[in-house]
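Note to self: keep these together.
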Amino acid sequence: MLSTRRIKVLIRSALLLCPLLGLPQAQAATPADALLIGQVAEPQSLDPQVATAANDSRILVNMYDGLVRNGEGKLDIEPALATRWEISPDGLTYRFHLRDNVRFHDGTPFNAEAAKFTFDRMIDEKNPWHDTGPFPLSFFFSSIQSIDTPDEQTLVFHLKEPFAPFLSNLATPTGLIVSPSAVKKYGKDFGRHPVGTGAFQFGEWRANQRVVVTANASYWDGKPAVNTVVFRPITDGNTRVAEMLSGGIDAMVEVPPDTVKLFAEKRKRFRLYETTGPHVWYVMLNAQVPPFNDVRVRQAVNYAVNKQSLVDNILQGSADVADGPIPAAFSWAANPDVKAYPYDPQKARELLKAAGAEGATLTFYVTEGGSGMLDPVPMATAIQADLKAVGLNVKIETYEWNTYLSKVNAGLTPQTHMAEMAWMTNDPDTLPFLTLRTEAWPKKGGFNSGYYSNPQVDALLEKARLTTDNAERGQLYRQVQQIVHNDAPWLFVANWKQNAVTSTRINHFSLQPNFNLLLNRVTKQ
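Structure:
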């Protein structure tokens, strides 16, 4: 826990930063009743089909709606812009009946053609607006063969083959519906001029200062309780804590682990929120180049790192040790027989010796911060020390979040051996399908930046997508978990227990299992 002296230093630091950042002038124009949210990074984009980070999604889900959504506090699917739907017996046709009298924030009508535009823009390379991308998660909808609009309130998807996660994917931020008129007006700059149908509409985006959204008075699901929400990017965790303590923000997400207890004890001023969700924090290992093209070295790294120490000491118990790519939050799909690699430095040394990798020098990409990345620099430093103890020399290279994403998502270079990453998902298909299949290598549009490849895993993931029976799907994912655990394409580290803190002036705030923030019911006293 932080000392009282340290807390005072943090508060003074936050106050001194304000004039340097020009924040008093920005805050002077902010209404007194505005809800001020401390985010972990500057958004990458406010185009829901372009953005990939949970940091961006927390803003997006308040400005846009999808056809369906996850219910509050759960991962179940419920109606949103679609009031109901039917699925054909063969699983190839999804017919959605759309909500009447909904308009985008620019005044144009939401209808079947507008919804079709969103998906055509992503998946049809010949679409005239496809160049407003890139759309890195269009994989979610690659099963769509065609889309029909029989009338203004009916949207019909025809799939190439049955696809079990289809509804789950429609509920992700990638499935949020955009205004065709706004996309056509702003083109590639749409991400800076977002227009949806959501509870809040875009106000302004001041780079590295704030994103402002205002209440949509005619929102179909009821006018929001607050008129203005300000999302402030505060990358440094200590500064975020200081701003929270000094009243500079009303709420903060991803509370630094060593301050969780501090906020829990200050119950008269703050409310601490914690919930579990499907999150995985890992280090991808470049399987294309030595030494990680040898499975023994990848396994050695997993034995060498004391993951229990990482979650107990650096993450202060705010996470559990991970055992593979499918988190235990998906209880029906996780494999209880797969256990996390134990801390065994001697076993690691034996494997490294057998592989001839003793004394190898490795380059490790590390981010300064970012959504779901927990405490990335201290985590990396501890991992570096554990690997040094078994004879591996690790050089850390640190980058700002969006720069980091551009480097890592493009694929690890032959000179880059390791890179941190974290994913939050709402279906067990998402993470392995986008990051572990051979067809998900970056040059093919995926996020398998470590170039792992196993034909058996590829086949199991494809089969799981075609299986509509959840029990059978679960059995397939349990096989994936076992194989990937043995192949060790990643250093499996942690499953985070999501958290946030608010002032006691804030009511009706809650955390969602999918890591988004729904702010339309939140009130501020």
